[in-house]
From TrEMBL:
Compartments it resides in: Endoplasmic reticulum membrane
Transmembrane segments: 6-26
One Gene Ontology cellular component: endoplasmic reticulum membrane
Subunit structure: Homodimer.
Catalytic activity: corticosterone + NADP(+) = 11-dehydrocorticosterone + NADPH + H(+); 7-oxolithocholate + NADPH + H(+) = ursodeoxycholate + NADP(+); 3beta-hydroxy-5-androstene-7,17-dione + NADPH + H(+) = 3beta,7beta-dihydroxyandrost-5-en-17-one + NADP(+); 3beta-hydroxy-5alpha-androstane-7,17-dione + NADPH + H(+) = 3beta,7beta-dihydroxy-5alpha-androstan-17-one + NADP(+)
An example Gene Ontology biological process: steroid catabolic process
Name under which the protein is recorded: 11-beta-hydroxysteroid dehydrogenase 1
Organism: Chrysemys picta bellii (Western painted turtle)
Membrane topology type: Single-pass type II membrane protein
Length: 290
């Protein structure tokens, strides 16, 4: 695709982005019933706070109860219509289903399911550990499917939304994240296919796949700051963009917009060039085989 075409596509995309920003009324989420997973810290925590400011009902999950309690308290201070938590590991599919059952108990329904949690992710050469990949697939992928299966009846009733938080590493090959990348690619395959089926059956449930670049969360910075050549994007703005894209029922979100959008454009027209750009965007010499 010539530079002219790329610039036209980007210009149109930027216009769409500007319009969607202008038409997003925050009262869209007032009183809405929302589950946010992985919300004890990072992007999930910030999404809970934005939803609280918008007057939504929030049910948050993660493993660390003490952190969840603090987030719930802060959500109530910020104006949440209600705020509850359930703690446990998403290795356990029963927990995944129980969170949805709790929403039914609390609210009698559900408007938005935000699937955000991830298991421990290392940033290094793949070490051949297949069992680790199996476990990460359960936490990062199968629990998302299990929650979706449990939540769909309520979401069909409300005409609700599913927000799936993924990554640039779920769309292009990035070194040192092979197991994690596999789980994110799986999300794209499953939820993009499910979205087609919902459209065919005229079921009014939207699925938004959120493709994120490097975001400045505590975990990510701890894991990769020694390799990254630029700081991560702000988690607070990232969280708001995810919520807005879900509320506007967008098909996909790219954040930071320009970095991710251009990477995907190059991927389709010059994949080897993108691979080289990606490698050069990292201080690979700082990654020591463990
Ligand atoms: N930060 C970044 O650079 C990028 C992030 N993303 C995506 O954004 C999302 C959030 O990332 P980020 O905020 O950085 O992640 P964090 O590591 O900050 O937060 C992860 C959350 O998941 C929870 N969690 C971890 N293990 C489990 C488990 N076994 N079961 C249930 N919950 C668990 C953690 O809480 P607890 O430990 O208490 O369980 C925490 O609340 C992820 O889907 C990630 O892939 C995508 C691209 C880039
Ligand atoms: C290194 C990736 C960004 C590559 C890129 O876009 N370069 C061009 C440029 O920056 O201009 C990072 C994109 C996604 C990140 C990973 C991710 O998806 C989240 C994980 C979160 C975890 O807590 C830590 C590490 C992550 C694997 C994170 C690592 C950096 C990215 C691959």
């Amino acid at each position: 695709m010539a530079v002219r075409e790329i610039s036209v596509v980007c210009a149109v995309d930027c216009l769409i982005l500007l319009i969607s920003f202008l038409i997003f009324p925050v009262q869209m989420l007032k009183g809405k019933r929302v589950i946010i997973t992985g919300a004890s810290t990072g992007i999930g925590e910030q999404m809970a706070y934005h939803l609280a400011r918008m007057g939504a009902h929030v049910l948050i999950t993660a493993r660390t109860e003490a952190k969840l309690q603090k987030v719930v308290t802060r959500c109530l201070e910020l104006g949440a219509a209600s705020a509850h938590y359930m703690n446990g590991s998403m290795e356990d599919m029963a927990l995944a289903e129980d969170v949805v059952k709790e929403a039914k108990q609390l609210w009698g329904g559900l408007d938005m399911l935000i699937l955000n949690h991830i298991g421990y992710t290392y940033f290094n050469y793949f070490d051949g550990d297949v069992e680790y990949i199996r476990k990460l697939l359960e936490i990062n992928f199968l629990s998302y499917v299990a929650m979706t299966v449990s939540a769909l009846p309520m979401l069909k009733e409300s005409g609700g939304s599913i927000l799936v938080v993924s990554s640039t590493a779920g769309k292009i090959g990035i070194p040192f994240v092979a197991p994690y990348s596999a789980t994110k690619f799986a999300l794209d395959g499953f939820f993009s296919s499910l979205r087609q089926e919902l459209i065919i059956e005229n079921i009014n449930v939207s699925i938004t796949l959120c493709i994120l670049g490097y975001i400045a969360t505590e975990t990510a910075e701890k894991t990769v700051s020694h390799v990254m050549q630029k700081p991560g994007a702000p988690k607070e703005e990232c969280a708001l963009e995810i919520i807005k894209s879900g509320a506007l029922r967008k098909r996909e979100l790219y954040y930071p917009y320009t970095i991710v959008r251009i990477a995907l454009l190059i991927r389709d027209w010059a994949p080897e060039f993108l691979d080289s750009l990606t490698r050069n965007s990292l201080n690979v010499e700082n990654v020591k085989k463990s």
